[in-house]
Amino acid sequence: MAALVVPPAVAVILLPFRAGLPNASVALVLVVIVVAVAANGNRPAGALAAISAALWFDFFFTQPYERFAITKSVDIQTAILLLVVGLAVSQLAARARRLEVITITDAGYLAQIHDTAELAQSAKSPDTVVDHVTVQLTKLLHLRGCRFEYGTLIGHPPRLEQDGTVVWGRRHWDVDRLGLPDEEVELRTFGNGRFYGRFMLDPTPGTIPPLQARLVAVTLADQVGAALDTASM
Fold first, then answer.
1. Which of 183, 139, 186 is nearest to 161 (CA)?
2. More exposed terminus of the chain, fewer Cβ within 10 Å: N or C?
3. What is the pLDDT at residue 187?
4. Where are the transmembrane segments (predicted)?
């Protein structure tokens, strides 16, 4: 709703200053409004706000006024730039907001990472860390099972990537809508750039682990890689 209401409302507020306010300044104010909408909403809201801002800029601030038409080339350029910049910045603002939520929302996730880091430093064998993370991943992602394979890359199963997405062959799997694939998913483990093995995740059908949990899972696998790398020295 804000994406549709706020841009025209701000345009109406600026309308009395139309004669003395450069259109570039008006466009800049509207871009700021688009960013505010995106930062407090999501990508579609930001995109809708950008389109709305461009339309109402055309309607109120380009000649002929009160018509969706533009006659001056400079106004056409300004309107296009408003739309393009508004769309781009709104996507960045929405992404920044999403990443902020991922970073701060769950102290329990941070505790798991901290516990594993401490174990990796104190354990006499990296196998202890592997077993610990296997249990953590099972609970974290609500798996039916989880196992670790040392130094093997057999087959082409779906793969949990560093950014929390899942790639299956050449396509991305929509985890947020479909959950993890109903077959084993690999989570590769690297230490200092060297491949050491992979966790094979056996998902529970119907469960959808959130992105935050998937990113924590990747972090835990990286800690295992660090422990294995240290042990190999």
1. 186
2. C
3. 96
4. 20-39, 46-64, 76-94
